[in-house]
Amino acid sequence: MAGGAGLLGVAGGTASAASGQPDPSFETEQVVGDEDWMYDTIQAAHDDVDAGGRIYVTESYDSANESFPIVLSNHVNVTGAHRGSTVVDAGDSGENVFEIREGIDDGQRPYPLTHAIQNLRVEGGEIGVLISPETSATIQHLVVRNTNSHGVASLDQKGNSGVSFMNYLHNVHVFTVGGNGFHLPFSGVNHASRLQFCVAWDNDGIGANVGGYGTHIAGGVYQGNGHHGIRFAPGANQFVRDAYLEGNGDDQRANEDHEYSADVQVHNTQASIENCYLQGAGAGGRSERGVDFKGGINSHVRNCLFRNHLEGAVYVDENSTQCDVHMESNINWDDTYLVADNGDRTRSEGEILPTDLSSTPGQYAHDSGYDDGTNTSSGHPEQAVWHDGAWYTWGGDVIRPS
Question: What is the pLDDT of residue 251?
Fold first, then answer.
């Protein structure tokens, strides 16, 4: 290849550039593979490329030459030829495969430079891709398999300062990892994260463990994971829609701290579950509950289909408040839908479900609910409206909460 011309007509560099070849330090694109004019390792190419440049990893790349972790701190785009043929294999190194570090600080808004990793298969190692921390990173068209810990994680593992938000994961498939498929906890300040058309399948932990504010999951498959399919942890405005969830919870922990496995668990946060298919029985395990509100706050489940859950479709615990189960909009193919309602002001389509309204004050003017018959003249459940500190039933009863 004349003049050391690189792939796609762009000059490539080597660790020791050949005579007449452009100085790698001026390159905006470097190529990694087994040709003489290519870099042997992704790390070496990264260390020579300009900020905002691209590293193209060919199918001839041999990760046996790499020292892990591969640390990305130059806001580069690492692109493989195809996730089926370009493999980054960390084997039993015990190190993370990729680490994205030194995120953009507030003084660099609106974030003109950021990291991207795409079109690769990542194997082995500890964590497949660690975001620690970064803002507006893009991880897409990636397969991650057989890591000792999580597949993709955004957390402060290395003591770095900064926050992680607006990170975008698209079409990332995580299989058979030792931890969670996607691990984006509140502690990593994972606000406004997006998981679009991702897959977490047959992982030892949770399919997607996500926290923070404004975390959205759109589409994708969460199946056969050891614990929950998706777990929303502290934060608010967390959302999953159009997802397929099946057979999560093979590791059912039958002990004094037993926690029922769920396709979706909402734990001490506010979350919405919409337009999802939740199948309890699957080849990978058996979800005991479809949706488990465990300290859910103003959360709802709407327009979903449930089937084959050992403990029923929806459970609302005593620490949950203002959850709306939208009973008319959901389809349940089993005998039970609302397994238990132990929550405060649990609703369906905005109305408080039948309860003793003398112990349940309204939340706002003209709030609507049903008394279970405890306080009605007829002794039957009746609809009531909240006004000026009391419930007024259609039968004429006035119920004043104590």
Answer: 59
